[in-house]
Design brief:
The complex is a heterotrimer of chains A (139), B (510) and C (232). By secondary structure, chain B is mainly alpha-helical. Chain B has 19 helices and no strands. The chains are: A mainly alpha (139), B mainly alpha (510), C alpha/beta (232).
């Protein structure tokens, strides 16, 4: 069986003040959840991804290990690391990311003392008229 | 098998290092040619000093040639960087040092063979064949030198390490002196006694002792290399003085203000005023340059093998003086040595000054004073280094002469003429330091080659006929001497000023 | 199982001046460790001691369980701070010599690296720029299969783009074989992501020994931590 060339991630800018493995794992999780990384896609080897992102191999290994634990990635000895065949996991991740985002927005709304719908409306309004309403432009 | 192949690799690498990097054929052959010239000069001087028959000249020359191998062969490419590179190789420290030694030995041997060939050629030219007795001496001498070469090679391999190891640095100085004196003694013996085939055992013994001591040095070097103490030289702030450009700049800051003030007085840019402003700037630049360079010339003495030069000269002169049978000829020889030595030393000093100016680079270009003044000041300060060396030579000759009864009678007269030679040598040397500093600073051109040639020619002439010149000056009536001195001074100053100006201009806008 | 590098109370003096004063740490196999500290902190001396070209006055060093000497140099590749390349050769000549001199030379890695770093093979080493010399020195170090790689200030005097290429190459060449890498540098900002762990060395002492992720878990970058450690 011949392998397709592995997926190449864009050169992500990582934030040096947050754990790098978590950032890499998060980016890959988002890619999978967005279904840009189809099931069965081969990921770059630890060595290649580390060289590309200029992080240590241990960092990449830890990120892969975390995703494997979530079931999003599968490693086959001697072949490499792949996105899990089971697409339900990707959808589950998608749902979870969405839930997390929503939870975040809800918290912001609570902080501002608004209902969620009110916050969304306000956001949509100010998006349209950001130029006139200087004060409303802030998030 | 693998061990041998790795040793072979090490050998090839060291061989490439010892060969060095030469871009051109001329560069490769210039060292032997200059060395040959020096060997001839040195042999001529020794033969004259000892009033030997010229038939022994070839032997002395071979010894001198061998002595030259000190400078040209094993020490040609030695730097701490190279040492670092070697230390990093995954080989036994012993293998590293021994490989260096083997390569050095082969090169010294090659040098020796070249010397023998030159001498044979010389014999053929002057039409002297080799009779069996001479041939025997020849072989014996060659064998002695080949044995001594083992010592030289061991020393060459070891000294780089020792020189860079703070605790052992004195050995490298002392050892250099000892081996130089030893070879001089062998040369002297050969010259004095001539081809006597039965009496070479002493040389062999000396050569063997030299080899044994050199091998002991090598043991120390291996130890130093294993312990790694050599590597710390550069971490310790070395007492070696180099002029710090910033400090120099601040020192010149006062000079600039004064120069500006001087310039303000002459608002009209007339010729005379321009001249006066320039003279003012020069007058300010010169003493400052001299003072700022002075600590460097006085402090570095023990570091650069200058101590070795002093000791070697002192001992050699004392030994010859002690053994000489003709004190008057010896005094003449010392005079010639003082003058020729001053000339050669000052030539080298000029190169040192030019090196410093080159190192300073843009810092030098930015100095707000006349650059020719700075070069001249540096040159004069560097010329100071010549004094202790000449002093040691003169002192050693005086000590040696006290031993001769015949000389004691003419003691004052000899001392005066040596003093005169010293003064003349120093004066000429000081001038020559500035001159060669200007020549070297101006950069490489066809002119530099000719200047080098002229310098060598003057040195040879001084070594050969310096004594006669001193006698002539002593004998001449003083008004004539004074007039001659004035003429020389004026001509010298004009020539120097011109060359300094050219050098400064060339360096600033090449 | 031996650690790749183990230092226990290492003290070294040079010319009577103490350079290292009781340094103790351990680096496991396969780790990439940054040895960070200002100039003159003793990083170079520490590397020399680990490489076995300088013996400590006191304390103990072990490289894969062995005391450093020429024998451990067989599996240690040290890139000294100032290149120290044979100035009398061309780059091609040097690589030919190196192929024969180092028992663990990997010719394919050499070709790959020389290509990647765009080494001018016919140029005299004495005429190389600082950046070119560093790249050639890196080829010399990384083309060996040495399991321990010590790089002393590999990034000084190199432009940003080349730095990134160099960092990538270091990661690539060292990750596959599970090599242990120590990088001494005072250039923290751009390369902090290269380290699993960082040792902060100041005035000959180990000031801090932390994993990079534990620093980041506190919401701090390594560079910020560096500033915090040495600003005092």
């Amino acid at each position: 069986m011949t392998l397709d060339p592995p997926w190449q991630p864009p050169p992500w800018e990582l934030d040096p003040s947050q754990p790098l493995y978590a950032q890499i794992a998060h980016r890959i999780r988002v890619e999978i959840a967005a279904l840009r990384l189809g099931r069965g896609t081969r990921l770059p080897s630890v060595r290649d991804l580390a060289a590309r992102l200029r992080v240590t191999p241990n960092t990449v290994m830890r990120a892969y290990a975390e995703l494997e634990q979530d079931g999003l990635l599968e490693t086959f000895r001697g072949q490499g690391t792949f996105v899990a065949r089971d697409e339900r996991l990707a959808h589950r991740a998608r749902k979870r990311i969405a839930t997390q985002a929503l939870e975040h927005v809800r918290r912001v709304a609570a902080d501002l003392g608004m209902e969620l719908e009110e916050l969304l409306r306000l956001g949509a309004d100010s998006e349209g008229g950001a130029e006139e309403d200087v004060c409303g432009g802030g998030m | 098998m693998t061990r041998w192949s790795h040793l072979a690799a090490l050998f090839r690498f060291e061989w490439s290092r010892a060969r060095g990097k030469y871009d051109t054929i001329q560069a490769r052959w210039s060292a032997p040619l200059v060395a040959a010239a020096f060997a001839v000069v040195l042999a001529a001087v020794l033969t004259r000093l000892e009033s030997l028959p010229w038939s022994r000249f070839p032997f002395v020359m071979l010894c001198a040639w061998f002595l030259m191998s000190y400078v040209t062969v094993p020490r040609a490419v030695v730097s701490r960087d190279d040492l670092y590179l070697f230390a990093l190789l995954p080989y036994r420290r012993r293998d590293l040092i021994f490989t260096r030694m083997v390569v050095s030995y082969l090169r010294v041997l090659g040098w020796l063979a070249l010397g023998a060939l030159l001498v044979l050629l010389e014999l053929a030219v002057i039409g002297r064949g080799l009779n069996p007795a001479t041939l025997h001496t020849w072989l014996a001498m060659f064998a002695v030198l080949a044995i001594a070469a083992v010592g030289l090679a061991a020393e060459a391999a070891a000294l780089v390490v020792l020189r860079n190891t703070p605790g052992y640095r004195w050995i490298s100085n002392g050892w250099g002196t000892m081996s130089t004196v030893l070879i001089l003694l062998v040369g002297d013996d050969v010259a004095a006694r001539g081809p006597l085939p039965t009496q070479h055992s002493v040389w062999f013994a000396l050569a063997c002792i030299y080899v044994i001591l050199s091998l002991a040095c090598e043991g120390l070097a291996i130890r130093a290399l294993t312990r790694g103490t050599w590597a710390f030289g550069e971490d310790v702030p070395a007492p070696r003085q180099s002029v710090r450009p910033v400090a120099l700049g601040s020192r010149f800051a006062g000079a600039r203000e004064q120069a500006v003030q001087a310039g303000r007085k002459v608002d009209h840019p007339g010729l005379l005023e321009a001249y006066q402003a320039a003279r003012q700037a020069f007058r300010l630049a010169f003493p400052h340059a001299m003072l700022s360079f002075h600590p460097r010339t006085t402090n570095r003495a023990p570091q650069r093998g200058i101590l070795t030069a002093w000791l070697a000269t002192g001992i050699a002169v004392a030994v010859y003086g002690w053994k000489t049978s003709n004190p008057h000829a010896f005094v003449r020889g010392v005079e010639a040595g003082l003058m020729g030595g001053a000339w050669l030393w000052s030539f080298a000093s000029g190169a040192v000054v030019a090196g410093l100016v080159g190192d300073m680079g843009d810092w030098f270009r930015m100095l707000p004073v006349r650059k020719d003044g700075v070069i001249a000041g540096f040159g004069l300060a560097e010329a100071v280094t010549m004094l202790p060396w000449l002093g040691v030579g003169a002192l050693a000759s005086a000590v040696a002469l006290l031993h001769h009864e015949a000389a004691q009678a003419a003691c004052t007269e000899d001392a005066l003429s040596v003093l005169l030679a010293l003064v003349m040598g120093v004066a000429a040397g000081a001038w020559n330091t500035m001159m060669s500093a200007a020549l070297f600073t101006a950069g490489r051109s066809v002119g530099t080659g000719w200047a080098l040639f002229a310098e060598l020619a003057v040195a040879v002439a001084a070594f050969a006929e310096g004594g006669r010149l001193v006698d002539a000056v002593e004998g001449a009536p003083w008004p004539l001497v004074a007039a001659g001195a004035m003429i020389f001074l004026a001509a010298g100053t004009m020539l120097l000023a011109w060359r300094l100006r050219v050098a400064a201009r060339q360096f600033i806008s090449p | 199982m031996f650690a790749a590098v183990e230092c226990d109370d290492v003290c070294m003096t040079a010319g009577g001046r103490p350079i290292l004063r009781g340094v103790t740490f351990r680096v496991e196999k396969g780790e990439m460790v940054g040895v960070l500290g200002p100039n003159g902190a003793g990083k170079t001396t520490l590397f020399r001691a680990i490489a076995g070209i300088g013996l400590p006055d006191r304390g103990r060093i072990r490289v894969f369980g062995e005391s450093p000497s020429w024998r451990t140099l067989v599996h240690t590749a040290l890139m000294p701070e100032r290149g120290h390349l044979p100035k009398w050769l061309t780059a091609a000549d040097w690589l030919t010599h190196a192929r024969r001199l180092y028992p663990d030379w990997d010719e394919r890695a050499e070709k790959r690296l020389a290509d990647e770093f765009e080494i001018r093979l016919d140029g005299w080493i004495s005429k190389l720029s600082r950046g070119e010399a560093v790249r050639l020195a890196l080829v010399t170090c990384l083309a060996r299969r040495a399991p321990l790689v010590l790089l002393d200030e590999p990034f000084t005097g190199i432009d940003l783009v080349s730095r990134e290429a160099i960092a990538s190459a270091i990661v690539r060449e060292c990750s596959g074989a599970g090599r242990t890498v120590l990088v001494a540098t005072h250039d923290v900002r751009e390369f902090e992501s290269l380290f699993d762990r960082v040792l902060f060395i100041g005035q000959g002492r180990l000031v801090a020994d932390e994993s990079a992720d534990s620093i980041r878990a506190r919401g701090q970058s390594v560079a910020a931590r560096y500033r915090e450690v040495f600003a005092k």
